[in-house]
Amino acid sequence: xxxxxxxxxxxxxxxxxxxxxSESAVQIQGLGIGINYGQIANNLPSxxxxxxxxxxxxxxxxxxxxxxxKVLLAFSNTNVEFIIGLGNEYLENMTDPIKAQNWVQQxxxxxxxxxxITCITVxxxxxxxxxxxxxxxxxxxxxxxxxxxxxxxxxxQVTVTTAHSLxxxxxSFPPSAGxxxxxxxxxxxxxxxxxxxxxxxxxxxxYPFFAYKDNxxxxxxxxxxxxxxxxxxxxxxxxNYDNMLYAQLDAVYSAIKAMGHTNIEVRVSETGWxxxxxxxxxxxxxxxxxxxxxxxxxxxxxxxxxPANPSVPIDIHVFALFNENLKPGPAxxxxxxxxxxxxxxxxxxxxxxxxxxxxxxxASKNIHYLSIRLNRSGIFLEVFVIDKIRLAVGVFYTDSxxxxxxxxxxxxxxxxxxxxxxxxxxxxxxxxxxxxxxxPLKIVIETVGYKTS
Length: 453
Ligand SMILES: *[C@@H]1O[C@H](CO)[C@@H](O)[C@H](O)[C@H]1NC(C)=O
Ligand SMILES: *[C@@H]1O[C@H](CO)[C@@H](O)[C@H](O)[C@H]1NC(C)=O
Ligand SMILES: *[C@@H]1O[C@H](CO)[C@@H](O)[C@H](O)[C@H]1NC(C)=O
Ligand SMILES: *[C@@H]1O[C@H](CO)[C@@H](O)[C@H](O)[C@H]1NC(C)=O
Ligand SMILES: *[C@@H]1O[C@H](CO)[C@@H](O)[C@H](O)[C@H]1NC(C)=O
Prior knowledge:
Layout: H1 2-15, E1 34-36, H2 47-56, E2 61-63, H3 69-74, E3 81-86, H4 91-94, H5 97-112, E4 116-124, H6 132-151, E5 159-165, E6 169-171, E7 179-180, H7 185-198, E8 202-205, H8 208-214, H9 221-224, E9 232-233, E10 240-241, H10 244-258, E11 266-271, H11 286-301, E12 316-318, H12 351-354, E13 369-374, E14 379-385, E15 390-397, E16 402-408, E17 416-422, E18 428-430, E19 441-449
């Protein structure tokens, strides 16, 4: 086995630049942009490839909806900061200190020394549902997770919060009159007390797209898209708002203030604009998505604050990294991505200008590491890159029998399993690429990744 492996490496080295995973861990100094990395799809690239893409973009902050160990591992030894999530289905269990401790010990502690986990969102848009059990479990779950972190000495590194839909507001204009829905006061008042005490940010998912789509004749598109426009005046403060997102953010600040808190920071855990929608989803288009996200990036880069909080730079996670083909709901839901799953941008938001690496290509010249395990001696393997997501694998047997097989890199699988059987007359047939199949000869391509420098 040892002799074959070195021969194998020689073969690969002759065709590719070969890096190990640890060599590819480069330090990046990110811009202020954060991205939501949602994974409700069956065609996404593996986390190690996504890690390469994001690092090539200098993206320094990523938000997950779970605590996917594969993702956390793929970002080991990078400077990328993670918000990880506990889905709503966990809330009830997380009110139990034993279960909360188990979760933190299994999903956070093993990764935190290598991957920067800075925040846990406990639940997402809990008040969108009518499930009052969920509503009343929210704060106890947050408190229990927080106490667990305190007990484990992690509370200084990791904050605890939850992300809200903008629907928790009953009034959002003028921003200075923003207020929460009265029916939620019994939940939000103690929640705000928790934020103030635990010093954690209040997160809001804010989509000017929804407001525009629901009322295209009333809402000026330029105002929703950060395009030049005369803006809307808050008659109470005389502050002028040239875009809706800032007005929404300040409305949340006002609503919090109305409940007696002035020292809780509001951050945008999601915002974005779909590049495609159903016929009745007015405004969903690549042009508008490009304007919204492109203009937003400029504002983030300029470290702007909102009119009512000019000294606090907006803190934003854009939704989302990829189009997610399995998201339910209207077509827009599946078309918020900046990227298609194959790594090509959905539209050009000028990231290349200040984020070199967007031109970074997945094609052959940029393949950088590839580790292969064979479980039988006497065979040699050669790998060619065909295109962004396919590799050609040629398998040579000791008896010079050669086959050429193109393998699709399975997006959701870190490992690619290829089974071969040697048929009669020397022909070799590939099986289905399933991990658990009984397999006379199994080849596992463990990782394929990209180095960005
Ligand atoms: C990306 O990060 C690297 C490493 O810190 C830095 O040299 C480079 O200028 C950054 N690129 C941009 C566009 O900020
Ligand atoms: C909650 O805890 C129960 C009992 O331990 C377990 O069976 C269930 O899978 C847990 N729910 C989630 C979402 O983890
Ligand atoms: C939730 O409650 C609102 C108001 O009480 C009601 O209009 C809506 O139909 C309810 N939704 C569901 C799914 O029960
Ligand atoms: C190769 O792997 C297959 C499937 O895991 C197994 O059945 C077979 O015995 C292995 N061959 C060797 C030589 O280890
Ligand atoms: C296998 O495919 C690669 C890539 O397309 C090609 O370069 C090579 O010549 C093929 N080999 C055989 C034996 O067909």
